[in-house]
Amino acid sequence: MRTAVKLGARVALLLVPALSAAEAPTAQSVLQCMRANVPQTLQVKQVELSAVDGNGGSRQLRGRLYARRENELLQAMMRIESPADMNGAAYLLRQKDGAVRDEMYVYLPSLAKVRRINGAAMDGSLWGTDITYGDLRQITGAFAGSDARLEGSETLNQRSVYVLSVNPPAANDGSQIQQLRAWVDAKTCVALRVDFSDGKMVRRRLEVAPAELRQDGRFWYAGNAVMRDLQAGSQTQLKVLGVSADQDLLGRYFNPASFFVGG
Amino acid sequence: MQALVNWIAGRPWTVVLLNLLLGLAAAWVVVDPQHASLRVRIDPSIESLLPPDSPERAIDQRVRRAFGESETIIVAVQPQAIFTPEGMALAQRLTQRYQQLPEVTGVLSLATAPNMVSHEDELDVRSFTQQAQDDPALVAGFAEAIAAHPLYRNTLVSSDGRKLAFALLVPALSEQRFLELGFDRLLREATREVAGDVPVYITGTVVGRAATARALLDALKFTVPAVFVIVLALLLLAFRNLRATLAAALTVALTLLWTAATAVLLKVPVNLVTAIVPALVLTLALSFTIYLLAAHFDAQSHPRLGDRGTRTRWVLNRAGLGLTLSAGTTAASFLALTLNDLPAIRHFAVLASLGSAYGVWLSLSFLPSLLALLNCGRPSRPPPASLWFERLGDALARFDQKWRTAIIAVALIAIPVNSIFASRVQAGAEFSRSFAKSSEVRRDFETINRDFDGANLLSILIETHVNDALTDPASVRRIDELQNWLRAQPEVGAVVSYVDHLKLINRAFGDASEDAARIPDTAAAIKQLLVFGGSDAIRHLIDPRFRSALITLRVKVDSSAEIEALVARIDQRLAAMPQPLDGVVSGSPLVASRMVRQIASGQFESIALATVLIWMLLALMFTSARAGLVALLPTVVPVAIYFGTLGLLDIPLSPTTALVACIVIGIAVDDTIQFMARFNLDARARGDEAPAVGSALRAILRPVTLSTVALCSGFLVFAGSSLNSQVQFGLLSAFTLFLAWVMNITLTPALSSKLRIVTWWDILRLDLGEAPQLTIPLLAGLSLRQARVFALMSKLEKYPAGALVIREGDVARDIYVVVDGQLEAWVQRQGEHRRLSTMGRGAVMGEAGYFGQRRTANVQALSAVRVLRFDHEDLERLRERYPRIAALVLRNLNRAQAERLARATAMLE
């Protein structure tokens, strides 16, 4: 269910005002630079999500992702276009402030029904992929609200990166992720690698090859990212095939009563 | 061979130092000085006992790759109350605490399992504890909801509603790590921290493996020192010589060290099977040293063996044949196990046979050299009970010869009778029952198995090889029917697949009025529900392409036989499924069961090969197929009785009991060899087999009994293991070796009393001078080996100068052939000494006696002479055993007679 949101998050990694070279970077300045890559409104067309299991078997979903930030809170909707038997299935996520649980809605065309999902776990898999809702929210929100620390700078894949460590806010939803470490590209402010750790071990790892960094206007994003489940040996690839940002979207895409209507 | 004996006897310092240096090198290999630990690897897993390319392992690995590691630990906690807000809060706190434990990647419990409830357009997927936290009034309905829930019934809460279950996901937790962490202790402490002193039960595959590993380590820590104590005590008791005892103990220790180094170099882990090797090698080495020490102290009673080198040479010649043959037969019987498909059994075979060979080598090189250097003299008084043993030996010899026919008949009847019982022996193992009833691991397993409808997990891998095939409603219904069939099987406690999840999601997404969970009517609906509505659990039950799925079963049975029977029925049911559905069963219990079956299938081939190999060795050594068979019979009988006992007492062939037969074959035959070798010496020296039975029994009864006591004590040490399989192994091995001892003091002498043995050792050592077949006319046409065989079937006698070999007028039927020296034939006529002839090498004399006449002349040695003496019985025996040699000898004898007749005729003319 949360995959769409994830995609949104991936897309959110697009923006890129680089850090001012004159100032010594801090955790907050790196976070700000990352957030600047996320536009207030955006539209993503043709995203592709491929989940590959340990035996190499894969499932691919393609669709359109609509996402925007409203009052700094994420709203994302994804409508599936292929495979054909999934066409029209839609998913809406509306992030809520504070302790209020996020709203999630699913529409299944074969049943012609919308259901609001209440109480889904943060560690739950998005549509059987290796990405969880918790991962997505962190990435999309550029680690917002977390206790960020800048651990230093180093070189990753021949790029200068800042190593940012974040302790997610105390989970009230069963998430086991206790720490995120992000290797943030100094030039684009896109995370080239994020380790999701439960405090004992790294459970999942997100990686972006520098060659996959894309720019759309002033925003940088990862055109292709891979999330690996280091325990299960599976992985999910997220491709963003096209992005257009700063475009007003109709409110109906994010309205629970109408998000599933085609168009 | 003799050159080697001479070399060892002549260089005691060199031999001792070389062996000690090798011992130091072995210690360097075995001990890791950096971590002050042993480099020997412990691997108690059952899967690793199987060949890496076995189909069971391949399927298991495929399942793990496709659906993730399923390693879980089940913790059952029995709080005062469960279905209260406090009980729910406790479940929540325990879950959170368990999640903090190292290696735990997730916990399935009331705090994490979604209690899917549909209210109008809202689907509530909060966990039970979240719902209880938000609305405590809901708790009252949880017991009923869980009892009615197809996924959670008897899973999250026990069938009696008194125990909470927590399934801890621990995909990377190996048994070694489990033991390092003391994971069971951590779990109990964490539980106590949160819930106080409540009953806690822990089980799971890794728990069982860790317990097995711990038991193996404990067994090693216990058996090795215990056997060593037995070594010292027995040696001291038997020989009353501290220096000799310490020398023998050092020999045994070196044997173990070399074997351990071999295990490290060959990367052989200590597992359920190879864990037996250390104690076995120690025990075998002890028995070898006993034989050597017996020969050593025997040498002390021969004052003419004056100097150190001569004594060592004598000891090696006395014990060499028996011990070398022992090494050969023991190694052959162990190596026969290499036929088995299981790597663990093959590892055992290689290590045990090498250990046996090391033991013999050290007993024949290091020990006698060290004894010589330590100048271990003769004990001040005869060894304890030696007189008693001699008397018993005499009595047994009389008994065995008197009741020879009856003893042989009983032995021969025992084989088919026990074979009938043996035909009832089944391969099998009960895994939890490997542990004592009082053990925590078994108690916890049995409690969880009983209260949660099974604690063993099997899986059925459903494959279609067509994408999206498993979203076809017809296929889904077939799988649902299969699950219903599975649930009807008495061994099965619970069955779960993606179909159960699908039905629940469908109900949740459907109209609130629909009560029953059902399968959607279209493939699109099924796919959409699985993709959008599915929880994480579905990922572990169906692949992303919807072409393969996993059905998980909790089974209540634990014995391999019951699991095999269930799997056979499931296989039959799977075969009846329509295309494109193919199914195959997998899981650790099945892997273990298949392993047991493989052991059994290789068992009889191994025994047959061991028997044939040992027979060939014996036949070669005794230069006769018949003698080989005779020597084998006393070993075959106890093995037959062993299998008969298994059948009679319904003891299954398990990974450890399957080893007993080959071990016993290899060891028991050693005592037979010891008797026959000694009997051969004595019979040859006395020129008569009957008294040799008594003298041989007198000589070997003590060492053979001591060796049997040592071996039985060594095996009985396993009775102290916490693993029942090792206890069974120890008791059965000791019992069978005791039977073998009984056979070797009754059947072996009875069989041997009319047997003339010619050993290779004799043939190699026998000196008949240069080219006897060319220089002794009676041996013309024979090969050197045949000439020596003839000599050994005859009697090689020595006479000093002046000795009268043949007396005129005596009635005797022996013929003599001069091997070396000069003799004179003479008669006394009218008080005058008349020389008839002088005879040298090759001359034949005494033929008149052979043909029934009195001796016609005296024959006296002019110098020290050696002669071969044989009579009609010897020739008859030769004709039966070696007809070609007999034919040539008789031809030569006729030729000699004819020449003599021609000469006599010429003299008359």
Automatic annotation (TrEMBL), chain A:
Q: Tell me where the signal peptide lies.
A: 1-21
Keyword set, alphabetical order: Signal
Give the domain of life. Answer: Bacteria
Could you confirm whether the keyword Signal appears in this record?
Answer: yes
The Uncharacterized protein TP-0789 domain sits at 75-257
What name appears for this protein in its UniProt entry? Uncharacterized protein TP-0789 domain-containing protein
**InterPro entries in the record:** TP_0789-like
UniProtKB/TrEMBL annotation, chain B:
Cite the InterPro entries for this sequence: Acrflvin-R, cNMP-bd_CS, cNMP-bd_dom, cNMP-bd_dom_sf, MMPL_dom, Mycobact_MmpL, RmlC-like_jellyroll, SSD
Under SUPFAM superfamilies, the record lists: cAMP-binding domain-like, Multidrug efflux transporter AcrB transmembrane domain
Its record classes its membrane topology as: Multi-pass membrane protein
- Give the transmembrane region(s): 12-31, 219-239, 246-266, 272-294, 315-336, 348-374, 607-633, 639-669, 704-723, 729-747
One Pfam family hit? MMPL
The terms describing its cellular component in GO are: plasma membrane
The SSD domain sits at 246-373
- Tell me the organism's taxonomic lineage: Bacteria, Pseudomonadati, Pseudomonadota, Gammaproteobacteria, Nevskiales
A GO molecular function annotation here is: transmembrane transporter activity
Q: Which residues form a coiled coil?
A: none
- Residue span, Cyclic nucleotide-binding domain: 778-878
Q: What is this protein called?
A: Predicted exporter protein, RND superfamily
Q: For this UniProt entry, what is the primary localization, expressed as one broad class?
A: membrane
Keyword field: Cell membrane, Membrane, Transmembrane, Transmembrane helix
Where can this protein be found? Answer: Cell membrane
> What organism, scientifically named, is this protein from?
Solimonas aquatica
